[in-house]
Amino acid sequence: IVGDDRVVIDGDGYAIIGNGSGYGIDTNGYDDIIIKNFAGINNFSTAIYLNNTNNAEILDNIINTYSLQNVQGIYVISSSSNNYARNIISTSGFGAYGINLISGTGNTFTNGRITAVNANDIRINSAIAIFNNVTFNKTDIGFENGATGSVSVKYYLDLVAREWQYDYFEGLAGSAGFCGDSKCSSEESPLTCVEDCQIRTTT
Predict the structure, then answer these.
(1) pTM of the full predicted structure?
(2) Distance between CA atoms of 93 and 70, rounded to whole angstroms?
(3) 61: which of 50, 148, 165, 185 lies 20 to 30 Å off by Cα?
(4) What is the DSSP string of the chain?
(5) What are the residues whose beta carbons fall under 8 Å from the beta carbon of 100, sequence distance 6 or more?
(6) Which of 9, 67, 65 has its CA nearest to residue 38?
(7) Alpha-carbon distance 90 to 122, whole Å?
(8) pLDDT at 163 over 60
(9) DSSP string, 79-96
């Protein structure tokens, strides 16, 4: 259980193993917490419990609830503006959610993977969250009865393509548009072009 604001809990590549109940890590109402680098937060009824916590960072953790039933990998209640990146979550028991979002806004999940075999990968009540480049085993998002929350799911791709009469045009993931006038000359790298491009004569 966390006991103060601005605490850093660094697993440093180690795992913590529970007995099938309780919380692996409970933020306990404190803010600006960092939880990172756990090779396993395993066999808890809730691996990470964000309880009335804001501005936390949950980074590079592996979570597995094994076959426990009616549990969750990450449980978020009354917690907002938290950043979750590169977490891998696995559950296989009945009713075992990968992520259970009860309430809170501005929670952002990036570049993670969720595998919930017998329940929703993501469960929503009144929370609002964004998922960027997060892989779902079943692409399964479920809502509680009467839920008022929402999620936005986005996937970004880098694109390099060839067009007749021009060498390349290019757009970076998440960018507002193409470089320069949208065209790259044969002298420019399609991955780094930043100048206005010239039409290449095609014969």
Answers:
(1) 0.77
(2) 7
(3) 148
(4) ---STT-EEE-TT-EEE--SSSEEEE-TT-SS-EEE--SEEES-SEEEEEES--S-EEES-EEE-TT-SS-EEEEEES--S-EEES-EEEE-STT-EEEEE-S-S-EEEES-EEEESSS-SEEESS-EEEEES-EESS--EEE-TT---EEEEE----EEEEETTEEEEEE-TT-SS-STTS-B-TTS-TTT--S--PPPP--
(5) 72, 74, 75, 76, 123
(6) 9
(7) 12
(8) no
(9) --S-EEES-EEEE-STT-
Which residue shows structure tokens 């964000």?
50
Residue type, 73: G
- Amino acid 158: pLDDT: 59
Distance separating alpha carbons of residues 192 and 172, to the nearest angstrom? 9
Q: In this predicted model, what pLDDT tens digit does every residue of 69-105 receive, in sequence order?
A: 999 999 999 999 999 999 999 999 999 999 999 999 9
